[in-house]
Specification:
The protein is globular, with a radius of gyration of 17 Å. The protein has one domain: Endonuclease/exonuclease/phosphatase (Deoxyribonuclease I, Chain A). By secondary structure, the chain is an alpha+beta fold. Helix content is 25%, strand content 26%. Strands 3-4-2-1-14-13 form a six-stranded mixed beta sheet. It has a six-stranded mixed beta sheet with strand order 5-6-7-8-12-9. Pfam families: Exo_endo_phos. One of its GO terms (molecular function) is metal ion binding. Keywords: Hydrolase, Magnesium, Manganese, Metal-binding. Its EC number is 3.1.11.2. This is Exodeoxyribonuclease III.
């Protein structure tokens, strides 16, 4: 099962890109973030024509998350308990093909450390950890992917000095992320490309639109696929697909993916 996550930065603006990429990459499950439209306006029929069912939690103008799947989608959960931002569409999970529960998450950006949005981001991460812990205890393979808006390590930036002391690089954000990981989660991409100074090939997933960041490869790794131990046992491969970021008028993010051998479960 090939699973990918992609912050499309408006599905209306990037729908043609999405369909083109689905044809090329052929993922089984795709987690989307920043849909920027209401649930009822989501292009279900067009994606069914491409072979994908969809579970959607949308919001007008902002946020929005979805799960696309070639396999059966069941038992959908919208949001999670004690979410400090319940009015924002930032989390959805579902049971896929009766065998693995997969979540799409869009963690708040936080803007900057002086913004009131920053403590809300930290509260969101803390509440998310509690929700993930419940899922892990259910003893079903669980995977959460999405735009976490956190670079967990200095090597998750091409130019770490540029980001020191600012989001998504602050100690508090990383502490929250690490506490999430301490539940027993494993980073799909870093299994293949561990944290070393020789951690090429490139695994960055976001590049600013300004200043030719993509052309300079001045990026961040803030999109992640995290797996519970049961899911990690099925892991076979992972990476980042930079191709859509080279297309005209792209999202500022590019897909991150992993492969699972479902016969091992």
């Amino acid at each position: 099962m090939k699973i990918a996550t992609w912050n499309v930065n408006s599905i209306r603006s990037r729908f043609d890109h999405l369909v083109k990429w689905l044809h090329q990459f052929q993922p089984d499950v795709v987690l989307l973030q920043e849909l920027k439209l209401m649930s009822e306006l989501f292009p279900h029929e067009q994606l069914l024509d491409e072979g994908y069912q969809a579970a959607v939690l949308g919001q007008k103008t902002y946020n929005g998350v979805a799960i696309l799947s070639k396999h059966r989608i069941e038992d959908i959960t919208y949001g999670f308990e004690n979410n400090p931002l319940p009015e924002e569409a930032r989390y959805i999970d579902a049971l896929i093909d009766g065998s693995v529960r997969i979540a799409s998450v869009y963690v708040p950006n936080g803007q900057n450390t002086e913004s009131p949005k920053y403590p809300n981001k930290l509260k969101f991460i803390d509440a998310l950890r509690a929700a993930v812990q419940i899922r892990i205890y259910e003893n079903t393979p669980y995977i959460i992917g999405g735009d976490f808006n956190i670079a967990p390590h200095d090597l998750d930036a091409t130019n770490p000095d540029r980001w020191k002391g600012d989001v998504p690089f602050t100690a508090a954000e990383r502490q929250g992320y690490n506490q999430l990981m301490h539940l027993g989660l494993h980073d799909a991409v870093r299994i293949k490309h561990p944290y070393t100074s020789q951690s090429a090939p490139d695994v960055m997933s976001w590049w600013d639109y300004r200043g030719g960041s993509f052309e300079k490869n001045d990026g961040l790794r803030i999109d992640h696929i995290l797996m519970c131990p049961l899911a990690t046992d099925m892991w076979t491969d992972a990476g980042t697909d930079r191709t859509p970021r080279t297309w005209e008028k792209p999202s500022d993010h590019t897909p991150v993916w992993c492969d699972l051998n479902m016969t091992q479960y």
